[in-house]
Design a protein that fits this description.
With 329 residues, this protein is α+β, with helices and mostly antiparallel strands. It is 27% helix and 34% strand. The strands form 3 sheets. It has a 5-stranded antiparallel beta sheet, with helices on one face. It has a 5-stranded antiparallel beta sheet with strand order 6-15-14-11-12. A 5-stranded antiparallel beta sheet has the order 7-8-9-10-13. The protein starts with a strand and ends with a strand.
Length: 329
Amino acid sequence: MGDELRLPIAADVDVVEARQQGRALAAVAGFSSGEQTVIAAAISEIARNILMYAKKGEIILSLVQNGDRQGVAVVAIDQGPGIPDIGRAMQYGYSTSHGVGAGLPGAKRLMDEFDLQSTPGQGTTVTMKKWRHLKIHTAFATLPLPGQAESGDLCLIKRVGKGTLIAVVDGLGHGQEAASAAHAAVGSLDRYSRESLVDLVRRCHEALVGLRGVVLGLAYLDPQAATMTWLGVGNVGGILLRADLGNRPSRITLVASAGFIGAEQAHPTTRSVPLALGDTVILFSDGIKDGFAESLMLSNTPQEIADFVITRHVKGNDDALVLVARYAR
């Protein structure tokens, strides 16, 4: 993932620079402030180890990814005297320089992965990695129209590939016929979930022959690529709220295509936007009042946000549903 950053280590100032660059890269990867400090401390340990025993060497920093994990890799290389007894060198308290011996074992304790290769007379290579798991946390809340036994508003939350597909489907009108149309659409989305969002709209159209139409909002959140692709057809709502208000724009609204699915074939367009750690995506049916975003506390969990919206911002004259997804570790 991306380019390597190669940093020479030959003086104390280089150790400081490597530590600062490691912290900055960890921030880019989405690690918390505390985790950034841990990564920087591990870099400090192995960089000082280079100075102490090899006099000079190199630190290589890079972002890495494996499955649903993203992290920072640190490689320290020197052409020093090498380590004749690796097992002993990795014991706490052991140091040929009569120091505290925190260097290599201390770095290993701070990181998730640690590998040490050394050949006496040729040098040493240390490879370390720190991982964070990327996830999409989701929740929803729904409320049928008062007096109705079944809601025509349904949702889908499904892990697809490396990301998560979310959908809010609103059957036209309310009652049993609206619910039947919504169930048919959600069933189609579930069955063909690996297809593109535009193709999923076509699949829904085919599934609604002879039934009422639906309006819907669809989004695919990819935590590895840190992106979201979404679309809407009809009077459904969608909003992306940035966790970092300095990330402009701090709010992005879903622009849905006019019409509904089940009459004429809809031709919506998708939009892809970058995601940052903590960003919150909300899809909602037209039974929810507009303007609720100003009253939300993004420090709340997705379920707390969904429950708040369904309790405080329902119109009361239609079925209502709100789905909340958050890009988190």
